[in-house]
Fold Dihydroorotase.
Amino acid sequence: MQQITITTPDDWHLHFRDGDMLGETVPATARCFARAIVMPNLVPPVVNAKLANEYKGRILAARPQGSNFQPLMTLYLTNQTSTQDIIDAKQAGVVAAKLYPAGATTNSAQAVSGIEALYPVFEEMQKQGLLLLVHGEVTESHVDIFDREKIFIDQYMAKIVQAFPELKVVFEHITTSEAADFVLSSANNVAATITPQHLLLNRNDLLVGGVKPHNYCLPVLKRSTHQQALRKVVASGSKQFFLGTDSAPHAKHAKENACGCAGCYSAWSALELYTQVFDELGVLDKLEGFASFHGADFYGLPRNSSNLTLVKQSWTVPDSVTLPNGEAIVPFFAGQTVDWKIA
Ligand code: DOR
Ligand code: ZN
């Protein structure tokens, strides 16, 4: 196939950041996605409805002229989150709350320690119909970084899902066969997002021939057997898996650093790269479900009514993008060839 037209997709997990950065990140996503679930790990984090509304206003103001892109806002859970915060968030149109185990990733220091203490909050989310989005990694320092997702499943994820059978739970950016199997064996109220980097790469792409800081994200890339398991699950067309880029910009100097930040800024190439993966797998017919239907259906939102066409045409991702404040950022797949292009 040389061309494919799909319903306009949505990105069910990304990081826009704030301030000047919005002038770069919002147009990059709005070029092809109609909606996006916006992660709340700002400094300070988006912990209540008021902050979410203000942040939404700044995102809307950064849209390109004529764009109808819609940000979907989320709340950052902490040990101080109250059931009233959940009620207020629902009333303000917030659609989900994000559980970061404290210390798991970028700007998560103020997040949740002692996940069980949040069960009353999960109970209220279940009642209000707010989704629970989970960064599924344990953070204990003795646990090997490559095992952190797998161990989170038994220690926390399975228990949460069992305790709240009506709560919609998204296992975000899954990276292992264990996570894929867990979702497949769960009821329809459990789903997962998958990033382009975890479908395209494995830990060799991070570590062989020198450390590749621009392929460093969290959860970290795993061994190739896990990459193959994720490719298999998207190829199956299961409704429990959908597109979430986890596009997460960091300035070049913060990535190319003795202590480099985690995150791949994929907004400029993600949809094209997903298309490339589905093409490689011989399942382009499954792309629309993954990119445009499964997420909206799971969130209980209408599917988009417009279309988007991709053509099989090679292009090269730029080596660098300049931020509105003059800083450089290296996009995911910089300098590499992508086989598909938005028409
Ligand atoms: O690689 C990542 N970057 N993983 C996350 O969970 C957070 C994100 C970020 O905010 O930079
Ligand atoms: Zn993320």
